[in-house]
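Here's what a typical entry looks like (Integrase catalytic domain-containing protein):
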Amino acid sequence: MEAVNNLRNKLSVSRFSKITGIQRSYIYYNRKITVKHKKSRIPENTINRVLEISGKRVTYGHRRIWAVLRNEGVKINIKTVRRIIKSRNLQLPYAKHKNRTNKRNLTKPSDINQLWETDIHYVSTHNGMYYLMAVKDCFSKRWISYNFSRTCTAKDCVKPIEEAYAIRYSNSNLSNLVLRTDNGTQYIAKSFKDTVRLLNIKHEYIKKQTPEDNGDIESFHNSLKTDYIWQNDLESYEDAKELMEYAFNDYNNYRPHSSIGYLTPVEFEKQWNISEEFRNKFLEDRMKREERRLKSRKINISRRNESVSILH
């Protein structure tokens, strides 16, 4: 077989066909297979790195694994990553998106420090329940600050707001800042509202029983559970506190976010602050995504109406 392959490489297709009696169509077909096989060859160290990330980050699908590789400087197609994951049967189950309701006229940020969200998340350990009060920038997706406490009073909820303000105030304009919360007792307390007013932050409440209006912080809590909390057996407050410190750094500096081009929040803010070209491209891409979403939604509504009319 090796001798035949050597002969085929030295002769033209027609000459090789005449000598061997093999049809030219068969030769061309096998040539395509060989070329395709060579093109799809993936370096062993790249495959190993994909599997290493998948093993360490069990909640990461092929898109986030690809983003991690890209951010590390590895050039690889996202479809190649998916193929590697699929060949090892490591793909995640498809996550169905819940139907989204129409949001009322809420603030929509177009820059960093225009909209923050905060809420309380309950962290369960063997020794009891503790409370995480986090502040997130809804534009850059950065987890700005938090307070992890044994209690969740209005005073506890004020601390991460004051800390976030101190962190951002030094190098940012916060004159147009909006803070969005639900109507929990901590956030309607006089002490909390007085602090927000003193910092000259506009306080925006969502309607009752509409957690989707606080979607960024809700999404953050879901990521916190799946990527960090549920993967650890937390014995005590100290264990949970240590995990929150790790998660805070990892979420901001390592975890890719799809809504900001699979960059980390820290890298996104860095690029946003130094590059006008980056800002323009990001806003243009976001507008295109929104147009596609609205178009798709109109099509789905139209199809649903057609189905209803047929039934009637």
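The chain has twelve helices and five strands.

More examples are in the samples folder.
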